[in-house]
Amino acid sequence: MKIAIGNDHTALQLKKEILEHLEARGCEILNFGTDAPESCDYPVYGEKAARAVASGEADLGILICGTGVGISLAANKVRGIRCVVCSEPYSAELAKRHNNANMLAFGARVVGAELAKMIVDSFLDAEFEGGRHQRRVDMIMAIEEQG
Ligand code: RB5
Description:
It contains 6 helices and 5 strands; from the N terminus they run E-H-E-H-E-H-E-H-E-H-H. Helix 1 (12-24) packs across helix 5 (113-125) and helix 4 runs parallel beside helix 5. With 147 residues, the chain is α/β, with parallel strands linked by helices.
């Protein structure tokens, strides 16, 4: 599975730990985030990772900024992206099972590394259930189509 990563300067240490975790799971990483400690603008990295997911270059995306909020907002402006901010595993699992989320975001200033790994695992291990959930996801995407 190919995972697009995006992050800003707040997330360098957490990203390192998440990358190690993803590699241990056998994931291929496409790193669109910054690796420099200087303050930077999270929309740049959210957009790059989101475009990789939207184009099919990556299967899924994981975004990290201070809260996960700003970078997820940027990603959700890319057509086809359903990015969710999660601070616990249950929402991450349901975001895939019910909402077919294709990107996960969390905050380096909000969650610790071990919790973040549990959130990532819940997201990656869950499968979209389709059925009535497909209809609702289609309704969301129709809103995007209407502009
Ligand atoms: C950077 O200070 C911070 O604003 C950013 O990482 C993120 O939390 C924005 O949503």
